[in-house]
């Protein structure tokens, strides 16, 4: 029979002045993991094991979150419980969300050139609006099907992008 789970757990923890760091294997997100079987091969997150050892069972559907935002930390006073919404909010607030699972609030929402897929800068968008306004009048150009195709090629975007800029469907925070 192998060593008890608790003994195997503590053999893989390095206590520092701040965090207690997991020194063994981690998952793709950097969180410590440990084979906790049975059933054989079942893996648990080290932070969840630490919670159970110090505070008891984790309620159904609860997540173990980190005050310190250090995925390898297993220090019990750095951990707290939250539901799925709290976990999502925590990820957004700490800038760790890989893929949005909900629309962020205005305060959380990255927009303009800080938005990951943005191809244009705020200065370019302002320039596009000003050039079209001077050249043809904003409303007339926006109604034409080919109105933005030349500008789209120039800026390396689609004519639909130009249309959306001119009609203020995107980059709405700019004048």
Task: Walk me through what this model shows.
By secondary structure, this protein is of the alpha+beta class. It folds into two domains: 5-93, Homing Intron 3 (I-Ppo) Encoded Endonuclease, Chain A; 112-166, no CATH class. The protein is 35% helix and 11% strand. The chain contains seven helices and six strands, in the order αββββαββααααα. The strands form three sheets. Strands 1-2 form a two-stranded antiparallel sheet. A hairpin with a 4-residue loop joins strand 1 and strand 2 (20-22). Helix 6 (149-155) crosses helix 7 (159-166). The longest helix has 14 residues, at 122-135. The radius of gyration is 25 Å and the shape is elongated. The model has no long low-confidence stretch (mean pLDDT 82).
Helices and strands, with pairings:
Layout: H1 5-10, E1 13-15, E2 20-22, E3 33-35, E4 43-45, H2 46-55, E5 63-66, E6 79-82, H3 84-93, H4 122-135, H5 138-143, H6 149-155, H7 159-166
Antiparallel strand pairs: 1-2, 3-4, 5-6
């Amino acid at each position: 029979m192998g060593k008890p789970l608790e003994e195997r757990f503590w053999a893989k923890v390095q206590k520092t002045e701040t965090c207690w760091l997991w020194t063994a294997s981690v998952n793709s997100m950097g969180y410590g993991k440990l084979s906790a079987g049975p059933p054989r091969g079942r893996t648990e997150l080290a932070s969840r094991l630490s919670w159970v050892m110090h505070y008891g069972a984790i309620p159904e559907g609860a997540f173990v979150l980190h005050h310190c935002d250090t995925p390898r930390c297993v220090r019990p006073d750095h951990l707290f419980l939250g539901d799925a919404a709290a976990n999502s909010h925590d990820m957004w607030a700490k800038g760790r969300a890989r893929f949005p699972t909900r629309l962020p609030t205005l305060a959380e929402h990255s927009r303009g050139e800080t938005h990951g897929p943005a191809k244009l800068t705020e200065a370019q968008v302002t320039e596009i609006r000003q050039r079209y306004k001077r050249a043809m009048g904003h409303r007339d150009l926006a109604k034409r099907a080919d109105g933005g195709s030349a500008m789209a090629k120039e800026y390396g975007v689609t004519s639909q992008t130009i249309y959306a800029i001119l009609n203020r469907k995107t980059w709405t925070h700019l004048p």
